[in-house]
Design brief:
Layout lengths: L2 H22 L3 H12 L4 H6 L10 H36 L20 H15 L3 E2 L5 E3 H4 L19 E3 L2 E3 L5 H17 L5 E10 L10 E11 L4 H16 L5 E6 L4 E10 L21 E10 L1 H7 L7 E8 H9 L6 H4 L2 H4 L3
Parallel strand pairs: 1-5
Antiparallel strand pairs: 2-4, 3-4, 5-6, 6-10, 7-8, 8-9, 9-10
Helix pairs in contact: 1-2, 1-4, 2-4, 5-10, 7-9
Bound molecules: phenylalanine (PHE).
The site of phenylalanine has 11 residues, from β9 and β10.
């Protein structure tokens, strides 16, 4: 048999073999392995081509053309089988169990909760709400007039100093307390009463941010206050004491005592600091002397208060001979710090999740 005939015969045998092998390949990997076995460097076709040496020159073009056709057929069959396998795989995926998109994800985003300062603020507003006080908002950017002048601060009062307040320019500043709401609400109620002829009556609370040039472990340049005031005929110090006692019992439990210590604020007369009995220690249990919260005194200062000064009524258009009223104001961070034993006010504003997650 001539060399050319041998090559032809071998090619034909290979043709049958690869057709069967490709068709039987169960997946892409097996198919590629068969392809390499045939056309790779050490493949079966390479072995056949080695025989070309013995093919006489006049037969070579014909045999060469045969080889090329063979290679083309192999590639066509390979691509065809590859496409068929891809389609099979896709069909199997589509026919299989669907992906369960309701399964929980791998990442978990913890649920948020109110910041302790806002939680305490809402609690205080709710207590005064139950006592009949209506909550109103108030601006943080305020006129000097509403923050100081109409509250009867003398022009040279140290609180009005550039060192103690944040001024935007002449006459405008960040409010230093929530008492500005007294001025706004009393002025509004006075003009309403004048317009309608109805008697004036106010029972208002207002909570929000205030600003002072103060910065240490218990003071922050921005903090929050809650203000309350009541104006009517015949309001006396007794009502003020009653309201603050009811408040203390709601906040710290039944029987919590309240005491007033005389103090001075330009917009009240008389004025007082409000102390509540320390809820963190007790004489009976012998823990009082060592109590770090009340420093062994048994009392915690929580608010300033007093009877509305007649000058404030005059400045807001209310008749001081007909109406009286009381007012109080307290720091919300202080209440939160006492409650949770937080030693440094900055912890409340750094927003470290390791701290906030504890509430
Ligand atoms: N505004 C006062 C302060 O910030 C507190 C206060 C409010 C005192 C109302 C008396 C009456 O210190």
């Amino acid at each position: 048999m001539s060399a050319a005939a041998i090559v032809e015969e071998r090619l034909a045998a290979l043709g049958t073999r690869f057709t069967e092998a490709f068709a039987a390949a169960p997946n892409e990997q097996a198919l590629r392995a068969e392809h390499a076995k045939l056309l790779g460097k050490k493949g079966e076709l390479t072995a056949v081509l080695a025989l070309m040496r013995d093919v006489p020159a006049e037969a070579r073009p014909r045999i060469g053309a045969l080889v090329n056709t063979f290679k083309e057929e192999v590639e066509r069959a390979f691509e065809g089988r590859l496409a068929a396998l891809g389609k099979e795989k896709l069909q199997a995926e589509l026919a299989g169990r669907p992906h369960d998109i309701s399964l929980p994800g791998r990442l978990s985003f913890g649920r948020g909760h109110p910041h302790p300062v806002l939680a305490v603020k809402d609690e205080l507003l709710a207590i005064f709400g139950d006592l009949g006080f209506r909550s109103v908002p108030g601006p943080e950017i305020e006129l000097e007039e509403n923050n100081f002048t109409k509250l009867a601060f003398p022009p040279d009062h140290p609180a009005t100093d550039m060192q103690d307040s944040f001024w935007f320019g002449p006459g405008v500043l960040l409010r230093t307390h929530t008492s500005n709401v007294q001025v706004r609400e009393m002025s509004r109620a006075a003009s309403e009463a004048a317009a309608t002829g109805a008697p004036l009556r106010l029972a208002v609370v207002s909570a929000g941010a205030v600003y002072r040039r103060d910065d240490d472990v218990t003071h922050s340049p921005m903090f929050h206050q809650i203000e309350g005031f009541l104006v009517d005929e015949h309001v006396s110090l007794a009502e003020l004491r009653g309201v603050l006692s009811a408040f203390a019992e709601r906040l710290y439990g039944p029987g919590t005592p309240v005491r007033f210590r005389p103090s001075y604020f330009p917009f009240v007369e008389p004025g007082a600091e409000v102390d509540v009995g320390c809820v963190f220690c007790s004489v009976a249990a012998g823990t009082r002397a060592a109590c770090r919260v009340c420093k062994g005194t048994g009392w915690l200062e929580i608010a300033g208060c007093g009877m509305v000064h007649p000058d404030v009524f005059r400045h807001t258009g209310i008749d001081p001979d007909r109406y009286t009223g009381f007012a109080f104001g307290m720091g919300i961070e202080r209440i939160a710090m006492l409650r949770y034993g937080i030693p440094n006010i900055r912890l409340l504003f750094e927003n470290d999740p390791r701290f906030l997650a504890q509430f």
